[in-house]
Design brief:
The protein is mainly beta. Helix content is 6%, strand content 65%. The protein has a 28-stranded antiparallel β-sheet that branches. Strands 4, 5, 6, 7, 8, 9, 10 and 11 form an eight-stranded mixed β-sheet that branches. A hairpin with a 4-residue loop joins strand 25 and strand 26. It is found in: Cell outer membrane.
């Protein structure tokens, strides 16, 4: 651990030193007279790192001077946003978009959440259109051009989520046939071996375009959770040491999709897209729970034979029109369908007071979610310095699920457990409208102001443990403002304010029981409230440095905890609303690009305080969290690329609990063969295996400690083959999905 910290600190010492390195430039000149003039040609080559290629062509063609450099990995915007270049960088060798985002500065991926430091959980967009987590996981990395991290989203973006991550695919698909084939092999001593096979194919001719993709993951994965729950009070003493080991087997993890588009002109089109993914998960979940109380010691061993199948399907129909006066109209619709079946077989063995006992359970769950959404966006360019945006959306969601638990003492005659039997129905409608006004003054100052209004209504029915049936309706108004200042060519600044909302995920509302062991279940909370936030940020850019400072206030923040159940030793993992939360953050970033070295570096400090007076959390002193990030690519011309990536998150205390530090160090090497047709990449990910999520908190007179280990340390070999004959064409694939899809997981 000391060696790892020393390496990272040495890198940051070099980066933030006073050494100024002039970045490489890209220029292309086709006028022969330009470089025939010695003075102008000398100006062109004023940087000693510039590389010049002079290509002689036929006597009736102009000569060409090309000055090349490797692409800049990250660009920091004056408005606080970050653009991360993927195409042509080592990031393009990631096995999945999830892995790719974990390598993006200021983005943290853990426990199924994607967050932006200082802001909180982010929502994902694809080419400017909101998508759900399942659709996000199915995006082929080979189709991604860049990623935008939007920390101050305007009213144009859904109010769901504190930040926006916009994934932009390669829009200019060459006409003719193009495709890539990827084979990934990952080997981990901790988790086993997995295989990812990825294909994407495109064809374009005239006004028609077609794209398709397919990916298949096979192999194994592992996740290990160690938890202790202690009640120190002598009158109610109990200590539980629980180890849960998920040994997953990917029977069929695949994603697929295709799209058709007809271009009326270069800017007008209509498109139809179908996509989906199948997750057929097998394997064994082993649970061992040792409980000590006033009655003595006992051990409970549980093995769950997993048989979980999830099928998600999405259909998009979109239309885009651009008028001669520069106005743009986009209309999109989508139907989403989620089908999940669970058929887990559970074997329990108990060792209590030198007495052995066993029983068998079957957990059968069926769930279906349908979401229909339609939205329209209109942009009008009033003049060269003024733009007006407006739009509306409507979504309708229906959910039906049922759970059956069957129990047997001899693995033969199973009887239905009426107490664990449950049905759940949910219907939701959301209507929204927004406007955004953008104005530039004197080329030194520009601003945007806007607002989004949303009306939500839903009805819920469940008979889990007791019948609950109710309806709710509420409206929200979300203003936002962004001011940008250009003080000089080298000095820029911005100020932003945004109001946002986070609605509970559907599973968090569903109170059906997810079995973990005889004393541990995961259950939804139908009384969850949406979380509201107000975020402020001030930032400045000076030359190659980017500095930000911000504050976020949360109302009814959504969290989770292990709460005591109905029996003395049982606990229920449940989402809940805290009272309020405060977050302060500041960050400093610097990146540069030279002929052989591309480097991105960020350092930040986050101070977070959560407050609650209802669930009996024990307050602890707040401790800030430090974040260090460095991503470096070294290019050896005509040989290979080397990558060094490292980030570090320190310990923190947020008032109601603490989290321990975690970090990652990754090394990679890449080589291109056969005129860029074949690309080989070998990487060692999380070399020291320090990406582990752990911490502790005290709630309801119980001290809880958790430590979660992932399959993050692995060696990976990637082979990518590109084929096709291409000319210029244009395929714009847009998708229409809403925040409701994000909540379906």
């Amino acid at each position: 651990m000391r060696f790892q910290k020393l390496v990272i600190l040495c890198v940051f010492f070099l980066i933030f030193s006073s050494i100024e390195i002039k970045a490489q430039r890209i220029k292309k000149v086709t006028d022969k007279s330009y470089y025939s003039d010695d003075v102008l040609f000398a100006k062109l080559l004023k940087s000693p790192q510039d590389t010049v290629l002079i290509q002689e062509k036929e006597h009736n063609e102009l000569n060409e001077v090309v000055i090349k450099s490797q692409p800049l990995l990250v660009k920091y915007g004056a408005n606080g946003n970050i653009d991360v270049n993927v195409n042509g960088t080592v990031l393009a060798t990631s096995s999945s978009v999830n892995e790719l985002l974990s390598r993006v500065p200021s983005v943290v991926v853990a426990e199924g959440q994607i967050s932006v430091l200082g802001k909180g959980e982010a929502i994902i967009y694809l080419n400017g259109i909101l998508i759900n987590y399942e659709r996000f996981a199915a995006i082929p990395v080979s189709q991604i051009a860049k990623i935008e991290v939007i920390s101050n989203p305007s009213a144009r973006y859904d109010a769901e989520g504190k930040a926006v991550i916009n994934i932009i695919t390669k829009q200019n698909v060459e006409s003719g046939i193009m495709g890539t084939a990827n084979q990934h092999v990952s080997a981990s001593k901790f988790g086993g071996t997995s295989y990812n096979t990825l294909f994407d194919f495109s064809y374009s001719k005239g006004k028609f375009s077609f794209i398709s993709n397919y990916g298949l993951q096979l192999g194994r994965n592992r996740e290990l959770l160690y938890t202790t729950r202690t009640r120190p009070n002598p009158d109610d003493f109990m200590k539980s040491e629980l180890t849960t080991d998920w040994k997953r087997r990917f029977n069929n993890y695949s994603n697929f999709g295709f799209g058709l588009q007809y271009n009326f002109s270069s800017k007008d089109y209509i498109s139809l897209a179908y996509s989906g993914n199948v997750n057929d998960l097998g394997g064994i979940t082993e649970s061992r729970n040792s409980i000590t109380n006033k009655s003595g010691n006992s051990l409970y061993a549980t093995d769950i034979d997993r048989n979980d199948v999830l099928l998600n399907q999405f259909i998009n129909l979109n239309y885009n029109l651009t008028t001669q006066k520069g106005a743009t109209l986009f209309v999109g619709s989508q139907f989403s369908n989620y089908n999940q079946t669970i058929g887990d077989f559970i074997e329990e063995n108990s060792f209590v007071a030198e007495t052995d006992s066993e029983r068998y359970l079957k957990n059968n769950v069926g769930s279906r979610i349908n979401i229909f959404a339609i939205q329209a966006d209109y942009t009008k360019k009033i003049d060269e310095k003024t733009r007006f945006e407006t739009g509306a959306k409507f979504s309708y969601t229906t959910i039906k699920s049922g759970t059956d638990f069957l129990i047997s003492a001899d693995n033969s005659d199973f009887e239905l457990d009426e107490e664990l039997l449950s049905d759940f129905e949910y219907n939701e409608k959301i209507a929204a409208a927004y406007f955004n006004y953008v104005k530039t003054w004197n080329n030194r100052f520009n601003f945007s102001i806007g607002a989004r209004a949303e009306k939500t209504s839903y009805n819920l029915f469940t008979d889990a443990k007791k019948v609950q049936e109710f309806e709710k309706s509420y409206g929200n108004f979300f203003p936002n403002a962004l001011l940008n200042f250009d003080f000089s060519e080298d000095w820029k600044g911005h100020f932003s304010y945004a109001a946002r909302i986070t609605r509970p995920r559907y599973q968090a509302l569903n109170p059906y029981v997810i079995y973990q062991d005889p004393f541990t279940t995961i259950e939804g909370n139908p009384n969850l409230l949406p979380e509201k936030t107000h975020a402020f940020e001030i930032g400045t850019m000076y030359k190659k440095f980017d500095f930000k400072i911000g504050y976020t206030y949360k109302i009814d923040p959504i969290s989770a905890a292990a709460l005591r159940g109905d029996t003395p030793n049982s606990y229920v993992l449940r989402a809940l609303n805290l009272e309020k939360g405060h977050t302060f953050f500041t960050s400093l970033s610097r990146s540069f690009n030279v002929k052989w070295w591309n480097s991105v570096n960020t350092a930040s400090i986050t101070w977070q305080k959560s407050v609650d007076n209802f669930y009996g959390f024990v307050f602890s002193p707040v401790k800030p969290q430090f974040y260090l990030y460095s991503n470096n690519t070294f290019t050896i011309p005509k040989l290979f690329k080397l990558q060094f990536l490292a980030w570090y998150l320190s310990d923190r205390s947020y008032g109601l609990g603490t989290e321990n530090s975690r970090s990652t160090v990754t090394l990679g090497i890449e080589r291109i063969f056969f005129k860029e047709a074949l690309k080989l990449n070998f990487s060692a990910n999380d070399i020291f295996h320090k990406f582990m999520v752990s911490g502790d908190y005290n709630v309801g007179e119980t001290q809880i400690y958790y430590h979660r280990t992932y399959t993050s340390n692995y060696f990976k070999l990637i082979a990518t083959y590109s084929f096709g004959d291409s000319k210029k064409a244009n395929y714009k694939k847009s998708e229409i999905e809403q925040t409701e899809n994000n909540r379906a997981r």
